[in-house]
Automatic annotation (TrEMBL):
Molecular function terms, GO-annotated: ATP binding; ATP hydrolysis activity
Occurrences of domain ABC transporter (ranges): 6-225
Name used for this protein in its record: ATP-binding cassette domain-containing protein
Organism: Qiania dongpingensis
Pfam families: ABC_tran
Stored InterPro entries: AAA+_ATPase (IPR003593), ABC_transporter-like_ATP-bd (IPR003439), ABC_Transporter_VariousFunc (IPR051782), P-loop_NTPase (IPR027417)
Keywords: ATP-binding, Nucleotide-binding, Transport
Coiled-coil intervals: none
Length: 279
C-alpha cells in the first residue's frame, strides 16, 4: 500500500525459548490509530518495542519508511536523580527545540496534566502516574510521526485521562500515527481505528466495544478571568451557571465529552474534575 509507513512480515519473538509473538504480519498506514490488547505478558509491550526498534525480532522482518520520527513512552519509567524539568529540557534539546519553544511547551503541557508543582522533584521520587505524565509530556514537546504508548493510562487520575484522550484525538486528527497497548476499552473505543488482541503469541482483530460510548460524564471546570461560556454547549444536559468561585458543572455523554472539553479549553476554562455519572 502506498500509505504504508511500517510493515511487519511474519515477525516472531522468542525469549528464553518461549515464543512471545508468532508470525505477526501487519501494515500500519500513516495517520492510523492502532491499539493492542491482551493480558499481562501477552506480548503487547514486546510488539511496541519491536516496532520502535528497541529489540530485534527472532524471525521475520520489520520495515519503516525512512525519516520517520518515533517517540516511545514505556509503561515503567526509569527512576532518575534528574528532576522532571531537567529531563524534559534535556529531551527537548535532543529533539532540536530552541529554549524559548521548549520552555513554553513545558509550561503549557505540565499545566494541562496538573504537574506544575512536581517539575523540580527528582524523578526517582515521583509516582508511577506522575512519571507517565512526564513521559507523555516529553513525547508531545515535538510532535512525532509515530507515537508509541505502552499502557498510557496506567496510574493516571480521571482528570489526566480526560486530557490525555483529548490530546491523542487532536494528534490523530493531525495525521500522527498512534500505536498503543492498553487494557481500557474506553481508550480503544474513543481513539483507535483498529484494535488487535494478542493471545498465545497470535495477533487477531478485536472488537472496539462501541457500547461503552453510552456512558454519561460530569465535567467540572474552573474559570479564568478570560474564560467565556461557548454558545455551542447550550444543548448539553445538567449545565449550571457559574457559581461564586467561577466553577461550571456540565453533564455530557461520553461521545459528546470530547467536543465539550475541546470547546471549554479553547475558551479559557480548565478541567478540574471528570467522573462517570451513575445517576
Amino acid at each position: 500500500m502506498p500509505d504504508t509507513i511500517i510493515a511487519l512480515n511474519t515477525v516472531s519473538k522468542i525469549y528464553d525459548k518461549k515464543t512471545v509473538l508468532k508470525d505477526v504480519t501487519l501494515s500500519v498506514r500513516r495517520g492510523q490509530s492502532i491499539a493492542f490488547t491482551g493480558h499481562n505478558g501477552s506480548g503487547k509491550s514486546t510488539l511496541l518495542k519491536l516496532i520502535a526498534r528497541l529489540v530485534t525480532p527472532s524471525g521475520g522482518t520489520i520495515t519503516a519508511q525512512s525519516g520517520l520520527l518515533f517517540h516511545y513512552i514505556p509503561e515503567h519509567f526509569p527512576k532518575s536523580s534528574l528532576t522532571a524539568r531537567q529531563y524534559l529540557r534535556h529531551m527537548g534539546s535532543m529533539d532540536g527545540l530552541n529554549k524559548d519553544i521548549l520552555k513554553e511547551q513545558e509550561e503549557r503541557l505540565s499545566e494541562d496534566f496538573f504537574i506544575q508543582g512536581m517539575l523540580d522533584v527528582p524523578m526517582k521520587h515521583l509516582s508511577k502516574g506522575t512519571l507517565q505524565k512526564v513521559g507523555v509530556i516529553q513525547a508531545l514537546l515535538k510532535k512525532p510521526d509515530v507515537l508509541l504508548l505502552d499502557e498510557p493510562l496506567s496510574g493516571q487520575d480521571i482528570e489526566s485521562q480526560a486530557v490525555f484522550i483529548h490530546k491523542m484525538k487532536e494528534l490523530h486528527s493531525e495525521g500522527i500515527t498512534l500505536i498503543m497497548s492498553c487494557h481500557e476499552p474506553n481508550l480503544t473505543a474513543r481513539i483507535s481505528d483498529f484494535v488487535f488482541e494478542i493471545e498465545g503469541g497470535i495477533v487477531r482483530t478485536a472488537d472496539k466495544s462501541p457500547s461503552i460510548l453510552q456512558r454519561n460524564y460530569v465535567l467540572l471546570f474552573d474559570g479564568t478571568p478570560q474564560a467565556e461560556i461557548p454558545l455551542e454547549i447550550s444543548h448539553f444536559t445538567g449545565m449550571n451557571e457559574k457559581n461564586q468561585k467561577g466553577r461550571l458543572r456540565i453533564t455530557a455523554s461520553e461521545h459528546e465529552s470530547d467536543r465539550l472539553l475541546s470547546l471549554m479549553l479553547e475558551k479559557g476554562w480548565k478541567l478540574r474534575k471528570m467522573y462517570e455519572d451513575h445517576i
